[in-house]
Amino acid sequence: MNHPIVLIAGDGIGPEVAAATCRVLAAAQAPLSWIEHSAGLSALKNNLPVLPDQTLQAIRDHGVALKGPCTTPVGEGFTSVNVGLRKKLNLYAAVRPVRNLKGVDTRFQAVDIVIVRENTEGLYSGIENEITAGVVTSMKVATDIACTRIARWAFRYASQRQRRRVTVFHKANIMKLTDGLFLRCARQVHQRDFPQIEYEELIIDAGCMRMVQDPARFDVLLLENLYGDVVSDLCAGLVGGLGVVPGANIGDREAVFEAVHGSAPDIAGKGIANPLALLMSAVMMLNHLADTRTDPACRAAAERVKNAYNLALADNQKTRDLAGSLSTEQFADAVIARLHH
Ligand code: NAI
Q1: Cβ(261) to ligand 1 under 6 A?
Q2: Which of 12, 79, 140, 231 is the most exposed place for a label (fewest CB within 10 A)?
Q3: Is 229 in the pocket of ligand 1 (CB under 6 A)?
């Protein structure tokens, strides 16, 4: 049986990396069928709103989506489609595994971090006001419910995956109420339900320094929205950049899988973007399908794709962001050539 998946190709490099990813998945005989919908600039071009109702409804109907990046104008224009989608569908947990890959040389070894980011509130509440000319505010929102929910998600994940420690980065010394609540909820969940997992709190500035000194000491990171956004890219830089970090946005009903990177307008249309981050996100999606729909064919397809891209990297088959010379499609070909059925 093929699982119907909503495909949002997105903007900029989105359609290029989505096409390459779908080609690999098809060659791997992943049991998926695509239902294409648009969001972002590509929706606007089709005279649709940036986040069309039919796109949201399709995700509600089918439960799972694979999404390319959507462009958000800086300092003006429409609000972020990505943030809107996560809020509307209540995809409260962003999960981003950051690992060293064999064949991708970086300054660090043994990096194996899973970022769990609160995806619905914090400074991304989008509540901004002009109080008077020259004075603007942005509201940071933290609720007991959302902070507890994300803490529970992170600890449950750590426990199920045999992870040893959850670290929270915070700034509760300054933002005593909002970050204070985030910490209190994390402590409570830890003490009440997961005392067997180590728990650690670091003020984010010192945490970032330790992250670039010794990233291998970190395990699961639990972060509020803005910190999670920034630290995700920082962590991507530790293992080879945005081309190699996948992600999932998970709620109680739906899940949307997307790379951490954006639409990369600087390289869009050139056919040189690395499709690996979206392909890795698709592997996460297949594993999610295997878990939630108990379909072993999804797990097998995930394994085939993962083994193939690992072999390709080990054979030095890489795109330019990883100091290789392959195009997006050539990398997809290199992965396909290493699929073993
Ligand atoms: P970006 O992640 O698009 O690009 C940052 C740098 O990394 C660029 O030099 C880019 O060429 C490179 N890069 C990113 N992905 C790559 C890939 N797959 N292969 C090779 N190189 C890659 O971040 P930027 O430039 O800050 O944002 C561009 C647009 O993307 C903005 O409109 C932003 O709002 C949007 N964005 C969307 C996201 C999403 O849809 N989830 C996430 C992040 C940004």
Answers
A1: yes
A2: 79
A3: no
